[in-house]
Amino acid sequence: MKNRIYFFTGTGNSLKAAKDIANAIGDCEILAICKGADVNVPSECETVGFVLPVYFFGLPKMAAEFLRNIQLENAKYLFVIATPGGISGKPLAQAEKIFSEKGLHFNYGKKIRMNANYIIRYGLIKIFYTTAMKTYDKRIAAIISDVKSRKNNAIEKFSQRFENIYLDNIRGVHDTDKGYNVSEACISCGICKNVCPAKNITMDGGRPVFHNQCESCMACIQYCPKEAINWSDKTQKRKRYTHPEIKYTELSKYYNFEK
Q1: What is the pLDDT of residue 258?
Q2: Contact in structure between 197 and 35 (CB atoms under 8 Å)
Q3: Three-class DSSP category at 16
Q4: Which of 11, 100, 144, 173 has the most CB atoms within 10 Å of its CB?
Q5: In angstroms, rounded to a whole number, what is the distance separating the alpha carbons of residues 248 and 229?
Q6: Are 129 and 90 in contact (CB under 8 A)?
Q7: pTM of the model
Q8: Cα gap 73→168, rounded to integer Å
Q9: Of 55, 61, 52, which is closest to residue 106 (Cα–Cα)?
Q10: How many C-beta atoms surround the C-beta of residue 162 within 10 A?
Q11: Is the CB of residue 30 less than 8 Å from the CB of residue 150?
């Protein structure tokens, strides 16, 4: 295939956007950024894109590391799309900074607001959800048009202030799971294990066990069918969210898990 898009997601938002772009440009493969993901891009790939959420005003730790390690040979057009929920920070500038250190540059970067869903900090905010869903089609259509025509634009300017906030928060992200607890509602379905991009969860006696390599994506909490996984005492009464078009079965296939 001549085109390839990589995504990272915890709730399906970025995968939804990646699928829509891939379907529109055609001849496009979609791959997940997850533990063990191959960083080598075939030489025949001409367009390579990245669709990434925003964590702490920047990129998910695993996504940032993937950008640092990816091996690009002959790509003629590189783009990055950020899918923030709340304050977007400077994720595109961070991505450009990482690539510039490799002697690469993005041709195009854009943000598309999706539903805010960081459940350990806040619950589902209905007005943001409604607005994001209603305006999504128009906004993704504009991005698709730009990518199909290989438009170039200026990436947002880097901000050390946002970078400092990001570094302060992302440093301890792997230990996020120390706050997780599992209630008696658990039915041992293993969905939490299968939707974890970090492969941080194993099942022991039918119960999930967390191994302190968390990416703080919240997929385990959001996709749990019985709301049995919670963080401290903060999430028990908060409404869960996953993108309505992205089911756990699809996500688990991208992470190379069985149904």
Answers
A1: 55
A2: yes
A3: helix
A4: 11
A5: 15
A6: no
A7: 0.96
A8: 33
A9: 52
A10: 19
A11: no
